[in-house]
Amino acid sequence: MVGWLNDEEQTTWQAYILLRQRMDAAITAGLAADGLSMPDYELLVSLSAAPDGCLRAKELAAQVCWEKSRLSKHLARMASRGLVERRPVADDARGVLVRLTPQGRALLERAAPHHVALVREMFIDDITDEEARALRTLSVRVAGRSQRHRPGPGTEFADPAGDAEAV
Questions:
Q1: Helices and strands of the chain, counted as H and E runs
Q2: How far, in Å, are 6, 13, 152 from residue 18 at the CA level?
Q3: DSSP three-state, residue 57
Q4: How far is residue 85's CA from residue 5's CA, in Å, rounded to a whole number?
Q5: Is 82 within 8 Å of 103 (Cβ atoms)?
Q6: pLDDT over 70, % of the chain
Q7: 145, 133, 117, 90: which is closest to 34 by C-alpha?
Q8: How would you list the strands of the sheet with 54-56, edge to edge?
Q9: Cα separations in angstroms, 124 against 32, 41, 63, 139, 155
Q10: 117, 27 Cβ separation under 8 angstroms
């Protein structure tokens, strides 16, 4: 039998949903002003953090928790805009390397300050250090538990201390 949410639990869950929806809408609008979608930004950030701005498509999919087909279609759109390039992996006929192009890096560098300012204004500046620590701890714990319900790559999450937690 399902243990239904009590009134307080339901209110907490609904508050989280509203937070996520409103933040996503605001961030989507902010990135659109710079010519990016939220998925574009997620992929560009992951690539920009990788050595030489390059990752295997499989690794990139794991980082952003996307299915192979979604990633492939989105990368094709980004490649047509000159933001990324895709190449076969030299020693793996099925593997694909995804590289951030100079144009993709320039667009990310132009959008990032606006994005960070929006995140700071809407979220970071309104929480105390104690709330931030609690949110990081909760986020890592829930993300780890959530991964158990989605098998596949991408099973590590950074904890608030910066260590990876394998789940």
A1: 6, 5
A2: 18, 9, 29
A3: helix
A4: 47
A5: yes
A6: 89
A7: 117
A8: 54-56, 92-100, 84-89
A9: 21, 19, 23, 15, 26
A10: no
Q: What is the CA radius of gyration of the chain?
A: 18
Residues 41-88: pLDDT tens digits? Answer: 999 999 999 999 999 999 999 999 899 999 999 999 999 999 999 999
The Cα angle at residue 64 between residues 55 and 30, in degrees rounded to 5: 110
Whether the CB-CB separation of 158 and 164 falls below 8 Å is answered with yes
Residue with tokens 């560098």: 109
The mean of the pLDDT values for the chain is 88
Other C-beta atoms closer than 10 Å to the C-beta of 67 total 10
Q: How far apart are CA 58 and CA 70, in angstroms?
A: 12
Name the DSSP letter for residue 159.
-
CA quadruple 146, 147, 150, 154: dihedral positive or negative? positive
Give the number of residues written for the chain.
167
pLDDT at 163 over 80: no
Listed residue (85, 89, 81, 110) closest to 99, CA to CA: 85
Tokens 């009134």 correspond to what residue? 7
Amino acid letter, residue 63: Q
**47, two tokens:** 């690539």
Residue written as token pair 């192009």: 101
